[in-house]
Amino acid sequence: MSGKLQGQIAIVTGGSRGIGRGICGELADAGATVIVNYTSHEAAAQEVVAEIKRRGGQAEAIVADIGKKADIDRMVSDVKSRYGRIDILVNNAGICPFRDFFDIEEETWNRTIAVNLAGAFFCSQAAGAVMREQGGGAIVHISTVTAMRGGPEQVHYAASKGGMNSLTSSMANALGKYGIRVNAILCGGVATDINLEQRKQAGAKSDEWASYLPARRGGRPSDLGKAIVYLTSPDAEWVTGALLAVDGGALIM
Q1: Which of 22, 52, 220, 251 is geometrically suited to a Cys-Cys bond with 225, CB 3.0 to 4.6 A?
Q2: Quick check: is 157 catalytic?
């Protein structure tokens, strides 16, 4: 494979399923060597790696719990030792255990923040140190339109992603002098495990909601992947601190 990201080393957290899987595929198609992070779904991660290799790309799977800083530091150190550099970090790993506002217990709150927000920060800190040494890189956070619109059983999730949005602008300011660009995607309407569960709880039919979007269809993981390729490529060298909605128009409804 060859493309805009030829020779780049990319880490995608939570890369074994859903949006992460789509992102890994698009990055590989653009020429990047993709590190597919997973926490517990090893078989799924290896399937992603095998599919990328079948298409002529390069990838490997690596286990790390993004809610634990020690795991993050080990993962980044292993990638640096193996490849000598890290050019792209996609902070995609996220959880959303649906809860009524009054039923969000401390453990659920803390784990959600640990994975979705603290995990993105500590991954960025560790990979960013490598990028600083080599003179630059690109970081993209996978956020959500829910951070702007809220959700009745997603208060903890929306709070973590709202923090991620603030993290994006602050990191762009802090890391720009090192040649590191930081952006976020506001995802909406992609058939992820989280969204499918939300629709099920709301009693919605599988794709009925999509007909109301300006784009008139639901999102695909590859839609996010294509946006990631743009944001991490030289085409976006003047784009940093941006919150890019990739949502079929959901945010403007």
Answers
A1: 22
A2: yes
